Amino acid sequence: MTTTSAQGQARGSEPVRIGLVGYGGAGRGIHARLAREAGLVVTAVVARNPERRATAEADWPGVRLYDDLTGLLGDRGAFDVVVVASPSALHAEHAAQVSAAGVPFVLDKPIALDGAQAAEVVATADAAGTPFTVFQNRRWDPEQLTLRSVLASGELGRVHTFERRWERWRPVPQQRWKENDPVGGGLLLDLGPHLVDSATQLFGPVRSVYAELRALTTPTEDDVFLTLHHAPSDGREVVSRLWAASVVGAPGPRTRVLGDAGAYVVTTFENDASPFEVFDDAAPDGTEGWVTHGRERRPVPRAPGGHADFYRAVADWVDGGPVPVDPADAVRTAHVLDVARESARSGRRLEV
Hints:
Blueprint: E1 17-21, H1 27-38, E2 41-46, H2 50-59, E3 64-66, H3 69-73, E4 81-84, H4 91-101, E5 105-108, H5 115-128, E6 132-135, H6 142-153, E7 159-167, H7 177-180, H8 187-190, H9 192-203, E8 206-214, E9 223-230, E10 239-245, E11 255-259, E12 262-266, H10 277-281, E13 287-293, E14 296-301, H11 308-318, H12 327-346, E15 350-351
Parallel strand pairs: 1-2, 1-4, 2-3, 4-5, 5-6, 7-10
Antiparallel strand pairs: 7-11, 8-9, 8-15, 9-10, 11-12, 12-13, 13-14
């Protein structure tokens, strides 16, 4: 597996330079924004849309623009690392191109459309000796970091249930490939990798999956429910229940973790409308969620960190540090999502 660090050139105080593939909602709105916050610079962009090209030039004066990935890779001196933020259906193809060029790269999730293709992405990069990492930025969510600290404290006792909801009230769908592409779109591929990765990072490998998938307002699924049974650890089994949905008039609670000594609850998420906002009104500044015992509750101090730390880790990785996210984790997640699709078709709980 490609888990070694990237072989970047020492630049002293010079920032890491990014060649960014795609400058839409993900490329500009997430990757470029976080990279800037972490002190990296975008020096090259692949974009054909005239408005996006103009926006890239305004955002990053002097940026080099290319019509396709081939053009970018032919100008190797313009960047230190490639970030692939193209539509999901193109990830495997673009990863193969960058691997062949021998350029360290960040690949947005999902790294491929299914588990077999994901394994091929990693094998191709490994055969070429090209290091890459995966954009699982939600590992650096304040709620995820805070939850890890709560679990480490032991104050919940023996945890038996993890629940996370990524629910929104969006009855009129956006007109994007994520909603309309029957191959690479849908919430299972868009949000499923985050949900499964969060659960497995906290509670270990998945042993079996039960899933329900529906398309209520879009050609692809916009209503997802997964139950993951994790492999027992120390004689206990944790069950994760995960939701991703767009037609939810009452979203939340965002996260709920149940143990035999208490619970941890995060009520709302990133300013999405929710009737649980009343809890947040009572939360002191600098806190993230509550530890609860029935009617008793206390706010939990927010753990330090945030999404830009992923790109800080990328900068360190390019200069010889550890890989931020092991691609092998993304392959295991892809296999879990494969089983989820089969479970939804069969109506049965299936082994992974």
